[in-house]
Each structure stands twice: as structure tokens, then as C-alpha cells.
Amino acid sequence: MNDVDPVALTVFLFLFGVVTILGFLAARWRKVGELDNLDEWGLGGRSFGTFVAWFLIGGDIYTAYTFIAVPALLYAGNATGFFAVPYTIILYPIIFVFLPRLWSVSHRRRYVTPADFVQGRFDSRSLSLAVAFTGILATLPYIALQLVGIQAVLDVIGLGGSDDAGWFRKDLPLFIAFALLAGYTYSSGLRAPALIAFVKDTLIYLVIIVAVIYLPTQLGGWGGIFDSAEKAFSTFNSDNADAIAKGQATGKGLIPTLGASQWAYASLSLGSALALFMYPHSVTAVLSTKNRNIIRRNAALLPAYSFLLGLLALLGIAAIAAGIQVKNPQLAIPQLFEQEFSPWFAGIAFAAIAIGAFVPAAIMSIAAANLWTRNIYKAFLNPDATDAQEAKQSKIASLLVKFGALIFVLALPKDFAINLQLLGGIWILQTLPAIVIGLYTRWLHRHALLAGWAVGMVWGTIAAYNKPVVGDPGSHFGGSVGPLEVFGISISENLIYFGLTALVLNLLVAVIGTYVCRALGIDAGTDQTHPSDYLTDAGDPDVTEGLDPIATPRG
Q1: Distance between CA 495 and CA 202 in Å, rounded?
Q2: Cα(104)–Cα(132) distance, rounded to whole angstroms?
Q3: DSSP state of 161
């Protein structure tokens, strides 16, 4: 553990205090009515414009763990770290096409969650429950990883501690931070992370731009930085040649080998792009906007974050040139800031990372709570719940979700949280057929969609479970890519993202199952939406009417 630097700590605590105050004041920001319904508490009154939405969606997608993990992969000599750059570029044309349709039908029908839409479109409580369950399951480890990012900062700044430092020294700072997060999320709802996102993104942009300009002046320019990295990787490969040959270690170097590794890179980029806006917190941020064109504008503007991400990844190489030596690559960037910058700027950088965890953690907990409330509590436990009861239920659930993530991180190894988050991407991708394809056609049968979801979930989980950690043949959940095999049948030695293979199986089962269901004359249910719902915009007739998403069938 490092000693506490009083200057860095003071700057860190000051910015943390500013964010906390803003979080509680957000309850009165852009307030139209009382926060006693999910539209107001869980979706910010569906009132955010382009400017606010850009910060909110960006703050939601680009998490603290992203700012820790992406450069950490480059620091470890893994070119996979760059996959986040192309996948976020691929992502935005995709969401430009389908998210306005989801916004329109959700705004017209007052849907709060993607599972609400699935229930209304396919008239299937079972399929809606599957989508809600998957969303909650995939979100929980994602929240936990935000804590991992905060822990890295607290450890470097000196507020954490080693495992034998005692509970008070080791964990109390994290408890206090998340108690404050829970407090202002409970009182302000989605408005809190929306307002805090301004501070978070401003600090992140400031820190990264200063870093990519200042660090080369101290480390021999970018040419010198890459030369240092190449030398370090070559030395490692030479010293560990036998272990690499036996598969007990991985070779280091930023350029992936031809063939298998490039398939892994490409499939991971495509699969991640398809999965990102299946996450309930991404949908929550989108549904908080006040009209459908705001989504298209943001799809055009958000690639600015991809540029930022590319710069951020380069800091992993800079950490090698700076001589950073850490056993846990996640600590490389916080350690780099502490070593190379003055204490006051290091404090700003630490605050940027910590605040960068609070924005997505708040949105994720709200999204998971809304899924619980609308698609489990109201759908199965209390169908007659009032708006106020729904809001109360979501507030309580959001507290429980954050507390569960906190205990998860403190009680289990960090690698466990990381591995479950990798599984989360595989899982959430299996909701794509019901949500995205459902926005365009109802041809796929509801029972076939449920069967496809189950097959994709089972196969993806088994494939990830059977993937060992490099150097530990008996281990499990060692990654999310592997040779293309389907239930033990080898198809290709190329490394493919498990989530993408699971999605293909999901779709095959859904299509075949649809033909079978139609041949047997199995009831497909009633579509409670209307074709015009998918094109409606704010101000159109009936859009402002509060319709019940379950009990108001049309056409």
C-alpha cells in the first residue's frame, strides 16, 4: 500500500464532495412532478435533450472499469485491448437504425424496460421474464466491476490497504463512497447520474488529453514509448520461451498472430457491438430522451468517445515506458498518474476514475431495479401496484442491487467478478432476437424465441465454463473466446467469441421452432402494439397519454 499524499487526497475528496452535493441537488433539477413514478424517478421524466443525453449515454457506456481495463490489457501486451475502439465505432450505425424505433414504441406505450416491450409485442410473460432475468443477471457483475475500478484508485491513493490491514482501513472508504452513491440515487433517481456525468466526462477528457500530451515529453516521445514497450515485450518472450511453447504462458506483443487471434479480435468486436445496447442500463439512458431524433444525433456524436478510448489505450504503453511495475495490471494507470504527475493533478485523475464509476453504477442499479419492479414484482407479485408503489419498489431494489454488488466484490476474488462480467456479455446478447428483431417483425414465435434464448444461454455458459485460464488447465471461466465447437463437435480452430456463436444457435433454434409452432397451430398471442407506434415522436397524438403497457392492446 502507498502512503497517503495529502495534496492528492485533498483534491480527490474535494471533487468527490462536489459530486455528492450535485447528486442530492439533482432531485430538484429539471423536475416536472414528484419522483413517485418510474417515468420521473427511473427515466428522468423522459425529458433529456441532446446535450444532457450525450453526457449521460457516454457516461453510461464508458465506465470506470473501461478506463482501467483497456489500458491494462495494452500494459500486459495484449492487442485485444484495442478491440474496444472498433467495436464502439461499429456500434453507432447499428443503434442509429434500431434505437429510434424502440424509443418510439416505448414512449407511445409508456414502456420503462426492454422486457416491457417484449411483453407487449409477443404477449408472453415467460419471454418477458427471461429478458428481465437476463438483464438483471448480466448487470450485477457489471456494477461490481465499477467497485473494482474504485478499489484500484483507493489502493494507489492510500485509502485502501492490503488484505491484512484490517476491515476499518481496508474496506471502510469503499463503504462510505457507496453509501453516498446509494443515498443520492435513492433520492434523485436518474437525474443524479445525468447531472454528475457532466463532471465525470469533463474530468476524463481533461485528464486523458493532458496525459497524451505531457507523458511523451517525459518519456522520449511516442517513438521512444513504443520502442520501450517493444523491448520489454521481447525480453519477456525471450525469458519465458519454454513456458510459452508449453502453453503455460502467453507471449507478449501488440500485434496479434495471423488467423485464430484475428478471428477472436473481429468476432469479439462485432459481438460486443451487438450486445452493448441490449444491456438494460443502455436502454434506460436512451428512453430518458425527449424525442427520437436526439438518439440519432447522439449516435453521430458519441464516436468522440471512441477517439478518447483510443488515446486512453495508449496510456497502457506509456506505463511500460515509465517503468511501472505492478502484479495487477489494473493498477498500472493509477500508478502511472501517481508517479508521473504532480500530486494535485494525480488527485484530479483519481477523482475522474472514481466518479467515472459512480455514473454507470447508478444507472445500472436503476435499470436493474426497474426490471425487477415492472417485470417481476408487478407482473407476478402485485399486478395492481400503483405508480407510487412501483417507484418505492424500484428505490428499495436499487439499494439492494448496489449493496449486493459491494458484498460481491468484498467477499469474492476480483477475478470472479471479471469472469462473470464476461459471461454477462454472452448472456445479454441472447436477448437480441426478441428485442431487435421484434422491433421489425413478429414472425418469430414467442415460444421459439424462448427456446432459442434458453439454448443460447446454456451453450454460452458451458463454453465459457470450459475455457481454462492460460497456465491452469483445470480452471474455468478463463475467457470469452475459444475454438469454434458446438456441443463437443469441433468446427474450426479459429478463436470465436462465445457470445456470437451462442447467438447464431439462438437464432437457428428460434427460426426452426417458429416453423414447428406454426405447423402445429400453437397460438402466437396478441400483438399489443400498432405499426404506427414504431414511428411516433414527441408531440404526436396520444404520445403524452399515460397508457398501461400491458392492458391496452391495439390492432
Answers
A1: 38
A2: 20
A3: -
For 115, the grid coordinates are: 422486457
What does each of the 555 residues of the chain score in pLDDT, given as a tens digit?
456 778 998 999 999 899 999 999 888 887 666 778 889 999 988 889 999 999 898 888 888 777 788 888 888 877 777 778 888 888 899 899 999 999 999 999 999 999 999 999 999 999 999 999 999 999 988 888 888 778 778 888 877 655 555 555 567 777 888 888 889 899 899 999 999 998 988 998 899 999 999 999 999 999 999 898 888 888 877 777 776 666 566 667 666 555 557 788 888 889 989 999 999 999 999 999 999 999 999 988 888 888 888 888 889 999 999 999 888 888 889 899 999 999 999 999 999 988 888 889 999 999 999 999 999 999 999 999 999 999 999 999 999 988 888 887 777 666 666 667 778 899 999 999 999 999 999 999 999 999 999 999 999 999 988 888 766 777 777 778 888 776 666 677 778 899 999 999 999 999 999 999 999 999 999 999 999 999 988 777 666 444 344 433 333
C-alpha cell at 390: 412501483
Burial class (CB in 10 A: 0-12, 13-18, 19+), 473: exposed
Count of beta carbons in the 10 Å neighbourhood of residue 437? 16
Question: Cell 416505448 sits at which residue?
Answer: 106
Number of helices followed by number of strands (H, E) in the chain: 22, 2
Is this structure's pTM higher than 0.70? yes
In angstroms, the CA 387 to CA 287 distance is 18
The helix-helix angle for 387-411 and 125-157 (nearest 10°) equals 50
Query: β-strands 489-497, 481-486: how paired?
Result: antiparallel
Contact present, 98 and 500 (Cβ < 8 Å): no
Which three cell numbers mark 534?
414504431
Question: Which residue stretches of 110-220 are H helix?
Answer: 114-122, 125-157, 167-188, 191-218
Domain ranges of the chain: 1-30+53-118+145-236+267-411
Query: Grid coordinates standing for 479?
Result: 475467457
386-394 own/partner pairs: CB under 8 Å, 24+ apart = 387/36, 387/37, 387/38, 388/36, 388/37, 390/37, 390/38, 391/35, 391/36, 391/37, 391/38, 391/40, 391/41, 391/42, 392/36, 393/369, 394/38, 394/41, 394/42, 394/366, 394/369, 394/370
Q: What percent of the chain is helix, strand and coil (3-state, nearest 5)? A: 70, 5, 25
Q: Which of 53, 74, 51 is nearest to 309 (CA)?
A: 74
- In whole angstroms, what is the distance from residue 199 CA to residue 22 CA? 10
